[in-house]
Amino acid sequence: MVVTMGTQYCSWLLRFLLPSLWEAEVAISAAALLAATVALLVILDQTTPTISSPPSSPTTEVYGRDSHSRCRRQRRSRAKRSNKALAEPGRASEIEIAADGSPSRGTTTAYAIKVELVSAKYLIGANLNGTSEPYAVISLGRQKRFTSMVPSSRNPVWGEGFNFLVAELPAEVTITIYDWDNVCKCKVIGSVTLAILGKDETGATWYDLDSRSGQICLHISSMEVFPTSDSFFKQYTGAKSQTKMLLNKQRLSRTEDSGPLQAITEFPHDEIVHHNYFCALERSFLHCGRMCISSWHLCFHSNVFSKQLNVIIPLQDIYEIKRSQHSLINPAITIFLHTGAGGHGAPTLSSQNGSIRYKFTSFWNRNRTFRSLETALQSYRATLDAEKQVRSHLLPNGESMNVISSRTDNIKTEDRSIELAITYQPFINEHVLVDVTSNTFPGTPEKFFTVILGDNAMFFQQYRDARKDTDLKLSKWHVSDVYGGNFREVTFRSLCNSPLCPPDTAVTELQRASFSKDKRNLIYETKQQAHDVPFGSYFEIHCRWSLRTTSSSTCQVDIKIGVNMKKWCILQSKIKSGATDEYRREVCKILEAASDYALKAESNDPASDDTVATSSA
Predict the structure, then answer these.
(1) Residues 494-535: pLDDT tens digits?
(2) Quick check: 307 and 182 in contact, CB under 8 A?
């Protein structure tokens, strides 16, 4: 009896531990299938050219399996060119032109080319469901620009414009459309190459792709410019501009080997990595890789399943960094970018207030990485402040030297004011503006700015409270190198009265103020975007306040508004009419409340709070 039970127990244990013939066949078949798949991927990787993921920096390239040997050869050639440039300082600008296709700072003339990718239609369906996730790579020489990715669309609408700076014309622009893929390599949907022969501007024109179907709509313009200011170079040369400001002063000779930045990008040999950390970038799944922090950039490189991903974020685009969480338990760092930035190698995430962000997680020590990022950002901003102070002292010194030399030479000449030829970017679209109202303000333009718009003014706080708007945040006014004048950002949550809208929406308003030389005129411009309303990302409301002094105690206020459509929409006529009517009533209430508030502030009457509440009701 006992022997029989022992025999049955042993047979049952053997059946439990040892696989059956059917299980062994399934395991062997699965292993053979996996081996065949790996072999096929290796063969395709060796025969198919490497296609880069869409980084935004024009210096990003993705390397294949022979990247290390190729990087060593490139580093030797760059070292020889840098030594030759140090030996012959007069030829530094020529080498710089040959390297990136853009003119150096000493070039007197150049050509600015703006390529606006409006939309595409009839693209190839690269996915199994017949759709695509298209994004575009626009190349001019070695300069590259990358658009955002449009999910699940064969007829995407971008409406994105990109600037290029070249030394001479003609030039060729290549637009390549890719299908974004998180796992496999990005597929080429089609491309087209256009020749820019001279200074000209074309309307929105459709061009056929070199594939079996697909067209893209482009708007291209080119003009001759005179790059004489730092803001001009920052506008057209992008992420490298701040680096060139220091490299043009003193090019240090470095003989050590290039670091990890040069291994995945074409950054200058002088830019080295101060910190690098293991982390992961949050996408549809986590892309594990390494984060590198230099004096000018934050870079992330990942290679998962032969899918290479490079993300390059210039420190000048970072607005704020915060500690956050991923999946409630994984510590993370969220990096918020300025409005209008983004597309730095991977599609950005969207926040509730409309800002764009990147989230990095899976750090070994999150707090240590956060402190390193804070230090790098503070050092970068301190460097920019020092550069501005140096440039502000150069002009008075040059003027005094000219006056001394003219007096010693006994040459009688008229006094001349030296003005820098600075090209500023337009803040709003003037073509969409229409006249709304014209009225008188009880004060000068300087008083309007101090009492209504100043950093210490309480008008907007009281006005928004009276309208029951919440979460009002006003940044400090600061000088804008791009638009000129003073600039600040205002965010708040506003109530919505339309039945098609949510109860409230996040609103971002960018404000710019610029005085004339005699302080008698003031231009106050705003761009407002509501993020949570239907088609909120398709349009902006532009507004211009023109204040002109008429007497010592009054000024004339002319207000124009307009709706700027960033993307085409079938309901855009309805959106324009509705938004224009609503914002016309809004600016009239603001002007009335501002006039009453200024009168009460002049008399130091505490009843000014009640006046603002009554006017905004």
Answers:
(1) 888 777 678 888 899 999 999 988 889 999 999 998 888 888
(2) yes
Give every CB contact of residue 502 below 8 A, 6+ residues apart in sequence. Answer: 496, 532, 533
Greatest alpha-carbon pair distance for the chain in Å reads 131
Contacts of 253 (CB under 8 A, 6+ apart): 82, 83, 86
Q: How many residues does the chain have?
A: 617
- Going by their DSSP bridges, the two strands 110-121 and 205-208 should be labelled as unpaired
Side chain identity at residue 564, one-letter code: N
Apex CA 231: angle with CA 226 and CA 235, to 5°? 85
Nearest partner of 347 among 362, 337, 355, 357, judged by Cα: 357
Question: How many whole angstroms separate alpha carbon 491 and alpha carbon 460?
Answer: 11
201-210: pLDDT as tens digits: 887 888 999 9
Give CA–CA dist 366/291, Å, rounded: 12
CA dihedral 583, 589, 591, 597 (to 10 degrees): -150
Q: What is the 3-state secondary structure (H, E, C) of 333-400?
A: EEEEECCCCCCCCCCCEECCCCCEEEEEECCCCHHHHHHHHHHHHHHHHHHHHHHHHHHHHHHHHHHH
Let me know if 372 is exposed, middle or buried by CB neighbors in 10 A (0-12, 13-18, 19+): middle
SS3 436: strand
Question: Given its phi and psi angles, is residue 231 left (phi above 0), alpha (psi -120 to 50 degrees) or beta?
Answer: alpha
Tokens of 307: 């899918």
Bin 152: left if φ > 0, else alpha if -120 < ψ < 50, else beta: left
Distance, in Å, from the CA atom of 165 to the CA atom of 234, rounded to the nearest integer, reads 11
Calpha distance 353→597 (Å, rounded) = 30
